[in-house]
Amino acid sequence: MKKNVAIVAGAVAVVITVAALLLLQLMTRGRIDEPVSVDPAIEREIVEKDRAILRTKIAAVFPDWVEAWRSDDDRFDPAELQRDGLESIDSLLDIQEDEPHLPLDDEALRPLISPDGTKYIEYGGYSEEAEPDSELTLVDTLKKERRRLLFYGPSVRIDDAAWADNETVIAVGTEEAEAGPQKTAVRPLVWIFHLPQRLVSTYSPAPR
Prior knowledge:
The protein has 208 residues and is an alpha+beta fold. It has one domain (31-204). Helix content is 28%, strand content 36%. It has four helices and nine strands; from the N terminus they run ααααβββββββββ. It has helices at 2-28, 40-56, 58-61, 63-72; strands at residues 82-88, 95-96, 119-126, 133-140, 145-152, 156-165, 168-180, 183-194, 199-204.
């Protein structure tokens, strides 16, 4: 009898945990996090680093992505992207993980491992409904922690991600938005994650 009660209690706890996670996903779906007030000196450093990454790393690290956008617009230049905002990386869904493993056996995933070999990133889509959501996650093998960096609904797709250095993750993607009655438009997005500061910059083309 006691064993059955323990089993039922455990099942109820699992259901409650899953429901709480789903609720948090719905609450955060379609956004990164919330705007924050940042020390001006730190923000200047972040802007300078972002600009260097946009000038030198986006085309070098994601050449296929850049060429795909240039095939539609030959004026497309990552260095010309404008910052949409600077937000905090929400810690609500930081999860402890007992034994995280680096994906060393998969050659295709090795670029997702940090240069110092202690962290890796995962990205992709999964479907709870008809269309997939997009998520980018950081796994820290030293802290044994899994941290969500980005979560969007089906209007945004993460196309690729990589490390700029041990403290900075960059991701590129595509956003689809309404552009009038029965019309949609797509635009490129770049996210730059500053992990020590738990901040993310979002960049997109300036309106024309």
